[in-house]
Design the sequence.
């Protein structure tokens, strides 16, 4: 069981370039999330999806777009990268239940120069 | 605003017991979570509390007092592999998770 898989693991971009982070889960989870993690701060929710074909904004959505491609896959796109988007990005998924335990991918370290 | 407070860093000795505190102020409450995150890795789930009291799971226990907006994670018989960051998160009235910045736990031999 692979769990939650993210690609790429590392990427360096120049300001203004675009890129897409891909996330796939094989646990049949309804909910999927994109977070960013910065030093000294808690995880911050960028966008999330509660099911195929649905997306919603989180705490810090500006500069990011997402697509729930199907039940398994959830992508995060930076259309015009900025240095402020330098961060570690985590994809996560969960069942739709009371405990709401999140299963995280290994993270994608993005540097924008 | 919503806020989760936990100590930035703690140090403990192998074999000892350590308590990591978390206080929160959120718009509503629908559960509190503790996650463990080793350096350079993904967070992994440790515990979930929604009612007051202590939940025990092996060497780890988590306590919740909703009236005080307070939780702690208790780690017993510390091992070197317990060196990690411990993240406290509260689910608010909108079922959104609010995360603390994490407590880095350093274990010394």
Sequence:
């Amino acid at each position: 069981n692979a769990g939650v898989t993210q690609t790429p693991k590392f990427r360096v971009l120049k300001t203004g370039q675009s890129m897409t982070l891909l996330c796939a889960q094989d646990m049949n989870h309804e909910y999927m999330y994109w977070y960013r993690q910065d030093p000294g701060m808690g995880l911050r929710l960028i966008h999330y999806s509660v099911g195929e074909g649905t997306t919603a904004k989180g705490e810090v959505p500006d500069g990011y777009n997402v697509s729930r491609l199907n039940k398994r896959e959830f992508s995060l796109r930076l259309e015009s990268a900025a240095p402020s988007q330098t961060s570690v990005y985590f994809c996560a998924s969960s069942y739709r239940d009371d405990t709401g335990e999140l299963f995280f991918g290994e993270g994608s370290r993005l540097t924008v120069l | 605003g919503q806020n989760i407070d936990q100590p930035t860093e703690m140090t403990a000795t192998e074999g000892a017991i350590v308590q990591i505190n978390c206080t929160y102020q959120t718009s509503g409450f629908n559960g509190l979570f503790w996650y463990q995150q080793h350096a350079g890795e993904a967070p992994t789930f440790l515990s979930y509390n929604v009612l007051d009291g202590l939940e025990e799971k092996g060497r780890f226990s988590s306590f919740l007092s909703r009236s005080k907006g307070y939780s702690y994670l208790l780690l017993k018989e510390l091992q070197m592999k317990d060196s990690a960051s411990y993240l406290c998160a509260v689910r608010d009235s909108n079922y959104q998770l609010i995360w603390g910045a994490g407590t880095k736990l350093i274990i010394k031999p």
